[in-house]
Amino acid sequence: MLTLNPDVLERLSADIGAQALQQALGLFVAELEAMGNALNEQPEDLQLVARQTHVLKSSAATFGADTLQALAGRIEAQARAGQQLAEDDWQRLRKAVSDTVYAAQSSSRLSGEAGHAR
To answer: Looking at domain 6-117, does it have CATH number 1.10.287?
Structure first.
């Protein structure tokens, strides 16, 4: 199971506050869920793959989803190089998105509970 880097989340919470972090995690989850739906079928358009994985990579980096960030970055580079993706890579990406959604939802609940406890 993937987790979000707690150091990144802690820095974000310090920078923007626990409530804003909870809202941002909610937006991240919504973005990941929409992207997950778009990833159900592997597109033939490598430029589209490069754009989608670039967005995933950037968002993942923001929230410390290190495994998703690395995988999306690798797939983005392959797509930009004109290399067709193996179905295994596409399946790993879908799983990483799904696992990251779960981790972000869990983190959002935890940060919400911590904010109410203060």
So the answer is: no
